[in-house]
């Protein structure tokens, strides 16, 4: 006995007119927007200023190769960037979720932020960098590093889209895979280096639409001293706990301390557990344990004679009622810094 509904039912093939061709099946992956690799590449350019505006790359991979005497600006976040065989170029890269890899490049000046940074077979590069992992150079000479110093309105959101923290920046902790005895293949740029002298703001009509600033006090990434020699034996550790205004408070404190002549040595954003709190906060750990569950902490290290006293005065005056850890006195401050960064080294597996 046949199915009740089968009698008047025709197959798709039977119901199609004789002169109509069968259409191919449509799958979900066929309906995805096609990516043209040429939209994500600068290749073989000479004496040009080119770029991509915010929203035009949107997390895709990007390639720059065989360019000479060019100014290149990528004002968007990307997945990864490879730069090959470029000479005498100025390059700005917005936040890169993965790696930036320079190969066979020379006489280039760059500002960029990325998860991993690597240079191979290059010479005479000047890099203003934000990178949470150790920068790597290999078979390269005369590579100079400075701290990322750049701002435009969309940049903070692009850092989030790329999964990068503005407070995790090991720009000066460089590892040379191929050191040569008696030679120094990399160095740090002078602290008074003017970023715009190396990577100037673009002047073309299209790229001027991006409202860029290279002023240190406007930089999305806090400008830190890194591994340069400290001016003083006195440092102060401040730890801010997660909340609605943590980033704003950290920036305000940095502006206040730097404005009074103290140096920002380094910053860190990291999650802490109860056992970590005991290592860092010692006998005061119980006071801070309830705050750790709210999210990552932000740590700031300041340096300069009188840093501890001034920092405590600013916090009591400006952030009254906001719970923070701050070194109690200059005698114990160095131990506070050591305890925190020993914990960070363990946490990061360094």
Automatic annotation (TrEMBL):
Q: Which GO terms describe its biological process?
A: post-Golgi vesicle-mediated transport
User: Which of this chain's residues are annotated to bind GTP?
Assistant: 98-99, 115-118
Lipid linkage positions (S-palmitoyl cysteine) = 3
Query: Domain named C-CAP/cofactor C-like: which ranges?
Result: 24-179
* InterPro entries (alphabetical): C-CAP_CF_C-like, CAP/MinC_C, CAP_C_sf, CARP_motif, NDK-like_dom_sf, Tubulin-bd_cofactor_C_dom, XRP2
Q: Does the keyword Chloroplast apply?
A: no
Q: How does it sit in the membrane?
A: Lipid-anchor
Location comes to:
Cell membrane
PROSITE patterns, alphabetized? C_CAP_COFACTOR_C, NDPK_LIKE
Q: What's a GO cellular component annotated to this UniProt protein?
A: cytoplasmic vesicle
Outline the segment boundaries, as ranges, of region: Disordered: 1-30
Q: Lipid attachment of type N-myristoyl glycine occurs at which residues?
A: 2
Q: Where is the signal peptide?
A: none
Record's keyword annotation contains Nucleotide-binding: yes
In its UniProt record, a GO molecular function of this protein is: magnesium ion binding
Complexes and interactors:
Found in a complex with ARL3, RP2 and UNC119 (or UNC119B); RP2 induces hydrolysis of GTP ARL3 in the complex, leading to the release of UNC119 (or UNC119B). Interacts with ARL3; interaction is direct and stimulated with the activated GTP-bound form of ARL3.
Give the family per the record: Belongs to the TBCC family.
Function summary: Acts as a GTPase-activating protein (GAP) for tubulin in concert with tubulin-specific chaperone C, but does not enhance tubulin heterodimerization. Acts as a GTPase-activating protein (GAP) involved in trafficking between the Golgi and the ciliary membrane. Involved in localization of proteins, such as NPHP3, to the cilium membrane by inducing hydrolysis of GTP ARL3, leading to the release of UNC119 (or UNC119B). Acts as a GTPase-activating protein (GAP) for tubulin in concert with tubulin-specific chaperone C, but does not enhance tubulin heterodimerization. Acts as a guanine nucleotide dissociation inhibitor towards ADP-ribosylation factor-like proteins.
Q: What is this protein called?
A: Protein XRP2
